[in-house]
Each structure stands twice: as C-alpha cells, then as structure tokens.
Specification:
Layout: E1 4-9, E2 14-21, E3 24-32, H1 44-66, E4 75-81, H2 85-102, E5 106-110, H3 111-117, E6 135-140, E7 145-152, E8 155-161, H4 167-177, H5 185-192, H6 215-231, H7 235-266, E9 270-274, H8 281-294, E10 297-299, H9 311-322
Parallel strand pairs: 1-4, 4-5, 6-9, 9-10
Antiparallel strand pairs: 1-2, 2-3, 6-7, 7-8
Helix pairs in contact: 1-2, 3-9, 4-6, 4-7, 5-7, 7-8
The structure holds 5'-O-[(R)-(carboxyoxy)(hydroxy)phosphoryl]adenosine and zinc ion.
Length: 339
Amino acid sequence: MSVTILGIESSCDDTSAAIIQDGYLLSNIIANQDVHKAYGGVVPELASRAHQQNIIPVVDQAIKKAGITKEEISAVAFTRGPGLLGSLLVGTSFSKSFALALNIPLVEVNHLQAHILVHFIKQYKADNRLPEFPFLCLLVSGGHTQIVLIKDFLDMEIIGQTIDDAGGEAFDKCAKVIGLPYPGGPLIDKNAQQGNKNAFTFNKPRIKEFDYSFSGLKTSFLYFIRDSIKENPDFIKENMNDLCASIQHTIVEILMDKLIAASKKTGIKNIAIAGGVSANSGLRNAILETAKKYNWNTFIPEFKFTTDNAAMIAITGYYKYLNKDFASQDIAPLARFQY
Ligand code: KG4
Ligand code: ZN
C-alpha cells in the first residue's frame, strides 16, 4: 500500500499544497500573495484573508496535478508553526476539516524542520542524492537563522541561532534603505551580480560560538547611506550595484564564518543549506567554494524548494506518518514553535 500525504503550508504569505507519495513528489502548487507589495512587508490580516481565498483552489490543483483522487490520501500534514497566527489558522482549520471528512490522520509539522527536510524529497527522473546523517544545515529565512545538527529525520538540535534579526530580514531591511521594494533579498542578489563586492566594507559582529546577529549591520548600513547621501544626493543611484554586492558579500561572510566554525568543531563535513536565503547566488557560490577548500559534501536545494512550499511539509509529514506520530482534532497552531 502506498503512503500518500497531502501537505498544507500557510505560515506566512504563500498558500501551498503538495502531494508526496512514498517519498516522491507528485505535485507542489504555490499561490503567492501580491497584495503585500504596496505595504513594504507582509500585512498579517491581508495574508490570512488571501489564504482563505486561495486554499481550496490550491488543494484542488495539487490533487488534480498529482493524478490521484482524494480517497487515495493517507494523511494530511499541515504547518502548525512558527508563523503568523491568522495565516496558520487557515491551514490548520482546513486540514482538520479535510482529515475529519475523509476519516484520515492529521499530522502537525514544524515549518523549520520542514525547510531542512526538503533535502529528502525524491523526484522522478532526478538523481535524488540525499544527505547522510549526521549533517549540518544552515537554515536562513526571513524569520530565522540557525545552524542545525541533524541526527535523524526528526532528531535535530539547534547549535547556533540569531539573537536578533534573521539573515533574510537583514537582506530585506538593507534593501529598503536603498529604496528596493519588499522582499528585497532577491533584488539585492540580482543587482549584486553586476557589482563589486569589495567596493564598501561593513563591520562584522562578534557573537559567541555559532550564534548570529544582524541588527548592528543593518544600523551601520543605514548610517553609512544617510551620511553618503548628505555628501552626494545621487549616491544610491550611482552605486546601486556595488552597494548590493558589498552588503550581500558581508551577510554571506557572516553566515559562512559560523558554519565553517561549526563544521570544524563537530567534525561534520556533510553540509546543507535551506530556507529562502539559500536561493542567494552569493551564498550558493560561497558554499561550493568552501566545499572545495574543506572537502565538504554539500547539499543545495533546487530553487523551487528554497522559499516556502508545501512539498517540504508533505515530506516531513511522510516521515512522521511512518512513525505514527499523529495529531488530535483539538490541536491549535503556534506562532512560536521550538523543535
Ligand atoms: O523561507 P522563506 O520563503 O520565508 C520564511 O519562512 O521567512 O524566506 C523568505 C526570505 C526573504 O527574506 C527573502 O528576501 C529571502 O528569503 N530571499 C533571498 C533570496 N530569495 C529569497 N535573499 C537573498 N537572496 C535571494 N536570492
Ligand atoms: Zn519559511
């Protein structure tokens, strides 16, 4: 008997549904929410309203694209947290009703664990190289920055994390300072490709062990821009690509320094990256270059698995289903959810 999991993701501003069968991806549908662009960030109330509009058509498409019927679904896995409570409520309520109607188990998933487990999604006609345990994962998104030691599918230990802003937030806030729209991370990446990464230098924080801090960098970038504009009102326009390349280079170096230290301390050379910022070309190149130097075995996700998606929820649900780790109908979402 096949195990077929419907995954539901609604923690922030993407509504997504995916079908994974016996570990293989059959469909992964994502509806983005453009309504937030005008506000320079995600507006929670607008996000939950958009999730309500999107969730049924998105699930319907995921089932159709997978070429299955809903009666073939073994369990529904949903993001319980962390995330925006109103957004999480939509996915949680939908998943509970769906599971109840079909009389199938419900599986709760931690969004951060799911970002890491994207590395175990198998695809037809792909080489499906999966990480071996133990491995380290640098998980960097808009809300989190962590170095995680993964001992088994669901046995993970956070060995370092940010004490203030996340890496993605650093990208987005610096982008805002130079007038780029939200989310600025991908735009910094694009402009950086035409710029000189050594044009400007910014101080890197001194934080203990494998922890991170990005709030000081954001502030010094803001002051640097403010002072430079006083001297030359066209400073940003004239230096856009160099500014993007330099700030990206600094963020990537901060991320890599701790990852290298964690690998040296633990002796682990199986290294993965995950989360929205793992789409960044500077970070991807830095991982590949460092891998050559230190003989790392690296795992870099496909672009479609870097930002929020339900395929990662479904694969995590699949391993929890195999462990018979089911949730009850009275489960509630959690805005903060440590694993
Ligand atoms: O994982 P994700 O989709 O959502 C969260 O769980 O936060 O990550 C979104 C973050 C945003 O901060 C976005 O700017 C950043 O990932 N991001 C990037 C790139 N693509 C997405 N940052 C830098 N370079 C990119 N190419
Ligand atoms: Zn995420």
